[in-house]
Write a structure and sequence with these properties.
The strands form four sheets. This protein has a seven-stranded mixed β-sheet with strand order 10-9-8-11-14-16-15, sandwiched between helices. Strands 1, 2, 3, 4 and 5 form a five-stranded mixed β-sheet that branches. A two-stranded antiparallel sheet has the order 6-7. By secondary structure, the protein is α/β, with parallel strands linked by helices. A hairpin with a 2-residue loop joins strand 3 and strand 4. The protein has two domains: 134 residues, no CATH class; 216 residues, Rossmann fold, CATH 3.40.50. The structure holds S-adenosylmethionine. The site of S-adenosylmethionine (SAM) has 21 residues, from helix 8, strand 9 and helix 10. The site of S-adenosylmethionine has 21 residues, from helix 8, strand 9 and helix 10.
Length: 357
């Protein structure tokens, strides 16, 4: 591990530590009467029960829907933007890393992410995000194919379906090339790096532009006993490292961004147009002569009606790599209980193996 990883400060929701004017919301009040304060730009403080925050948000949704009736794309986008703004003015007080409302969940992130702040205000939606992430962190996520549990750090992408891991596993089990070292671009919660190490790679370098991913995976790697073989570096793509690898793997974001990307999880899902050309250009420099470049991808963009396929673009126009193998696998729904329309029916994950031309 390098110094830089010890010095990383995690990304976390903004808090208010200065004095600000707030309107109090008490349990006996009618949530319908407070939402105009939020919509008009005033801060509202939940004083009694955690549940009051949920009630106010519910009313806020209803109220804003009445003002944003248009069902078209722009109308819905405006509604979401208005909800985001107004809901973030709904606040809860935190003292000594505990919520100052009754029947509130314990959220360990409040101490881990804000060790020095003993008293502050935080928005209710941010608390909900922290709470849900804390539950995952506590409970952990069983990754069957790795025969281990991971505990994802706040703000880090983690897989909820495992088809791409199965596909990679199938390929890795047959791989007979050198296993001196590998590079895992966009390491996230570490699953592909752990897979490489379990399959006999001597050393792996994992990079990510998300600080929380590097912080969390560093901790997990220590806990799981991988840290002497796994180096983690915060940075863009190859993070300016100067090594060449026998294998490079990248499970990139699968959808092209049509909005300005925020730091963190957003960049796990959406990519900017220049991401893939930059990746292939750098991969050319970092792949050993007889090395393999693996991309895990999906036809999700096609399924939802987009035509972009940055990997095919590279094959057709890049002039850097040739395709050695292509494998695909149908995606299993994450839960039998999903009521969502079955548009994932035709979704497939893809594994592409490239070698130098
Ligand atoms: C789909 S997630 C995959 C995470 C993990 N490898 C897995 O398979 O579960 C994509 C990851 O790539 C990271 N990422 C996105 N753009 C990046 C870039 N330019 N350089 C390095 N990592 C990037 C994201 O932060 C995210 O952790």
């Amino acid at each position: 591990m390098t110094d830089t990883q010890y010095n990383l400060i995690p990304d976390k929701p903004e808090i208010v530590t200065s004095e600000i004017e707030v309107v109090s919301f008490f349990n006996k009040m009618d949530p319908r009467e407070i939402i105009s304060e939020l919509i008009e730009g005033n801060y509202v403080l939940i004083e009694d029960f955690y549940n009051n925050g949920l009630q106010v948000l519910e009313e806020l949704k209803k109220g804003l829907r009445r003002n944003h009736k248009s069902k078209n794309f722009q109308g819905q986008r405006d509604y979401r933007a208005a909800f985001r703004k107004a809901s973030h003015r709904l606040l809860v007080m935190v003292v000594d890393h505990k919520l100052e409302v009754k029947k509130a969940p314990e959220i360990g992130w409040l101490k881990i992410l804000y060790p020095e702040d003993n008293e502050f205000l935080i928005s209710f939606p941010d608390l909900q995000g922290l709470n849900s992430s804390w539950q995952w962190y506590l409970k952990g996520l069983e990754i069957e194919i790795l025969k281990l549990k991971i505990h994802p750090f706040y703000g880090t992408y983690f897989p909820t379906r495992f088809d791409h891991l199965m596909l990679f596993d199938k390929w890795l089990k047959k791989y007979e090339g050198k296993k001196n070292n590998a590079i895992d671009i966009g390491v996230g919660s570490g699953v592909l790096s752990f897979q490489l190490l379990q399959n006999g790679f001597s050393r792996v370098l994992g990079t990510d532009t998300n600080k929380n991913a590097i912080i969390g995976t560093t901790q997990e790697s220590e806990r799981l006993g991988f840290s002497d073989r796994l180096t983690l570096k915060y940075g863009d793509l190859f993070a300016e490292c100067d090594i060449k690898a026998d294998l490079i793997v990248f499970n990139p974001p699968w959808l092209i961004a049509k909005h300005q990307l925020a730091e963190g999880i957003d960049k796990a899902i959406y990519y900017e147009v220049d991401l893939f050309p930059r990746f292939f250009e750098q991969a050319k420099q970092h792949l050993e002569e007889d090395g393999k470049l693996i991309l895990l991808f999906s036809n999700l963009a096609e399924v939802i009606g987009d035509s972009d396929h940055p990997i095919l673009d590279e094959l057709n126009k890049g002039g850097r790599f040739k395709k050695e193998l292509y494998m695909q696998k149908g995606v299993k729904p994450s839960s039998k209980k999903t009521r969502r329309k079955n548009w994932r029916k035709d979704e497939k994950v893809e594994l592409w193996v490239f070698t130098h031309i």
